[in-house]
Amino acid sequence: MPANRSLLSNSSVLEQQRGKALPDALHRLQSKVGKLSWGERLDILDAWVQVLDGAYAHLPLKRALYGFDPIRAIEHLRQQVPALSDMQFHRELTSLINRLRDAHTQYSGPHTLAGAVASLPFLVESYGPPNKCRFVVSKVSDRRLTDDDHFVPGVTLDWWNGIPFDRAVDLHADQETGGRPDARLARALESLTFRSLEYSPPPDEHWVDIGYTDLKNKQREVRIAWRVVLPGCAPTAGHGGATRSRRGINLAGEAVRRAKKLLFSSTLWREEQRVKAAKPGKRSLTEEYKDFLSSRTVPTKNGKFGYLRIWSFDVDDDQRFIEAAIELLRELPDRGLIIDLRDNPGGFIWAAERMLQLFTPNPVTPTKFGLRSTPLTRAMAAARFNQTELGPWAESLENAPANGEPYSTHLPITSPEQCNDMGQHYGGPVVLVVDANTYSSGDLFAAGIADNRIGPIVCIGQATGAGGANVWASDDLSVAMKPAGMPLPLLSHGANFTMALRRAVRSGDADGVLIEDNGIAGQPYSMTKRDVFDGNRDLIEHCAQILASQPVTRLSVTRREREVVIRTDELEQIDLYLNGHPASPGIQVQQTGDLAVQLPSSDGELEVVGFAGNTMRQRRRLPAPE
Fold this sequence. Notes:
Number of strands: 31
Strand content: 15-25%
Distance between the termini: 49 Å
Radius of gyration: 26 Å
Low-confidence stretches: 1-10
Structural class: alpha+beta
Helix content: 25-40%
Strand order of the largest sheet: 13-14-15-19-20-23
Oligomer: single chain
């Protein structure tokens, strides 16, 4: 990727928030990046044709849905190469790939800034019904960058560069990657003020003119310049290794999420830098993953409930990530839990799918993935070097041409054993909150909640962002294609791309349903003004009402050698299993009370299962005493 860390030197949080003016950042980039020759541009186009035709998981779907053939479009662009500048070539190819409406499949040219985000120092949000929503400024980072004391949180946005604001959002949505109109609008609203410069060209304008109505209902105008910030990655973020080929993430969305944290949560940003500087032994597990997980108790009209925000799944160590979540869950009320997955761009697939088991006593069935059946994917799966990642799909790919199958068998990336190796850790009812920016591994988590019947889903918008695939970077594709005897052309000057290699289909009641361009739907909810400016107050009350209507049972277990003390609430029967074998099945219990049970042995893993009626409600696993 292009080297650009020198664009913004180490500085205070305030200096990091201010960043560099967009023209200055682009000028310094131009001075560092070499020009692409015609041959190098053609190599980039050849690489795209090879992977789109031979490996892109959604090619038949995108052709059918949008009437767009990216391979023919690239051939047309090939004829224009001699007449285009580098920046024009970059913009044309980026625009072409974006027409696939797939945030997994993105081009990053040499004229991009790795890890950089172009930003305006304010956040735009909307509330109200979709057909009559109101656009407001919800946060302002640094008023010195706006030079307008009236431009504060709460003002209503009327114009954007002379265009009515709602129309400006619609126009920008046409350039975005969402498969559904509401998904494109959600991403357009976000990218009006935040744009990842690694996966999209810089803004055409160096500043924007904004017409707004202030808090005293007076119409005003302000001109605000674009600036470039480098939010970087969290200390425990995914950096490569085994996670690279098991990711489902909108990388541009993750960069924007980090930029928002830098600009609008300076206290949390400083805390992150402090934790980052601390020695590993001095950091608690929950501190390590504070960029990805946060929790609190929320008081509502229906009582106190737990609230768990999962900001991202972009971690390297899924085990420690889940253990951090368990620590947070221990401190929350067991009456019910709100899991908030809004704006989660995805990450490590194992982290998302393995976390599901914490919230249910039932076995979790993971999402399944398949590859297109092509000569390239067959050769890749058959190559000895690729057996760990693609070997399980090799047999079905080999048989697919004879059977007329366009795809391989769909198999899980996260094994069922991994999805059920830790068991339930939260026994109360749960409700999941998502929106159209919940993407990729976030889609998989939402699908798991629905398909494993863990709890209801509340959705801001029609459904989740609909990113149904495992995404690979061009470097990883190149490594996998070489032993298959079909090498990827060399990409010069730091050009690279990401691509959806394995498509995802749902399990359970929705077995086989595509996630791409569909997403996971739930009970619709429209944000209110109190949600935007008062900590999601109405949304939390709405979720609390859903939780309060669900039955509640409780189970706590303490193990001492061969004795087990079990405390229950609203359960009728307890079954005990030692090393997977029945130890004391069918114990009838009072609906509330304590019970002491003697085990035949103190060795092995103990599993305690609680039933209300004929329904399994609780399950706990306890290791053998040390």
